[in-house]
Input
Amino acid sequence: MKTRWWLFVIIVFSLLPLWDLLHTGLPVTHDGQDHVTRIANFYQSLSEGHIVPRWAGNLNWGYGHPILMFLYPLPSYVASFFHFVGFSFVDATKLVFAAAYIISMIAMFVWAGSQWGSIAGLAASVLYGFAPYRFVDLYVRGAIGEHVAFVFLPLVLWGLLKLARSGNRRWGMVVAASTAGLLLSHNAISLMFFPVIFLYGVYLNFFETTQRRWFIVFGVWSIAIGFMLASFFWVPAFFEGKYTLRDIVTRGDFSDRFVPIQKFFFTPWNYGGGNELPKELGMAQWFVIMASAVTFFRSKKNVIRWMIGPLFISLALSIFLMIGWSSGIWQQVTILQKFQFPWRLLTLTVFFVSALGGVVVSSVRKTSRIMFCGIVLLASFAFTFPMWHAQAYSIKPESYYTSVYEGTTDTGESSPIWSVRFMEARSKAALEAVEGLVTVTELSRSTTRHRYRVIASQKAKLVENTLYFPGWEVAVDGKPVFVEFQNPEWRGLMTFEVPAGEHQVEVRFQETKLRKAANAISVVGAILLIL
Output
């Protein structure tokens, strides 16, 4: 069968669980509403000419928020494009979920099919798309970043595989672009997957290429370009995270999020959060795990054993790190705490089991491959069918997402460290007098630039009801003035003084030197990518 027919079959399969998204409105999920609101703020900043949106002006009761700097921008860029061409913000968000689901299955087929053959690729693709955790992300959590990240996990490996086998440098572009896509899709998922990329690179260097030194150098170089491409996001997110409540709010979040072992085998399907969240691996997945164990001990081909062994160990390690016995490791290895929830490692189990399925199908006799693949497909469909729908749908006007929003669209971890976690009510005015009598007229306002005419009868102190974050500046009559943002009475807000008289006041959000450098690195990365 030609490749296009395999892709057609996979697209048809992928559409089955997406049918429910045709409902009017937004699926009621844990995070869906926040994602739509964040995308609306992202689009507003884009439409004002900011290629890299960093400030969400309508969030947090209109006090603004730097969350766009810290949470995966790629889904917002894609949703913004869909909105630009005419879709509502809700429909644009649903399209991102749908497109990412379809493309992720195609991506897994492309990689696994190249590695083990088309039938094995089909089995791996279905296991990848029809794992219960995929429907948790889609219809329970509404986790758009994790959902999009599933696209790039196999694409990075596919690029490396092609690079190793062909020795053609153009595949380095796929590696670089996919690496950047992964970094821009989800912070924690990219962090947990890079060890997998490293181990796969080691495997390729021993089994798939004769140009070992060249592959190491150019493979590392391609991944480095990927990091450069995404620098505009991850560099400020990494280095300026110290100005947020991230380490305070998320500290110890993992302690009550471990998974009881029995839940890996069966969890009644539900739409609850936290410990109620479905965390089963899936019946088809357990069938593949048992089949891969049998294949490992019965196979006489070393290459098969070298594939199954590391995948099986990686799967076992991922499961172990999700159960309470590993709490001591989470305490000592602090980088694990960046994942926030132990059960987030289910992302890796989905990938490892899908890869194991591809290996197992490729290892059986040709006459049995279609039958084995058929069992995997039927089990995947039958046992996940009840998961193919949302709990309910919410219908709200577009203005709900585009106007002032009371939340921050996160748990407050991205709030500036000198402010409170969440503001509690909308301010009376954008600019108010703290001391002295003044008349304030707002001349213009955008996400990152607020202009006022201020008439003060005497020297006065004013408060701009916008949370301070590095980059905000205040100019009075074109001259920068000192901004206080740690006054306990106006915690996190910008206060400044104006002399008596009439003045033009401009409050603007600028790129810091670090952000400018990160932007420049991304531009250099783009140039290197196309050279």
Observations:
- The first helix runs from residue 3 to 15.
- The two ends are 36 Å apart (CA to CA).
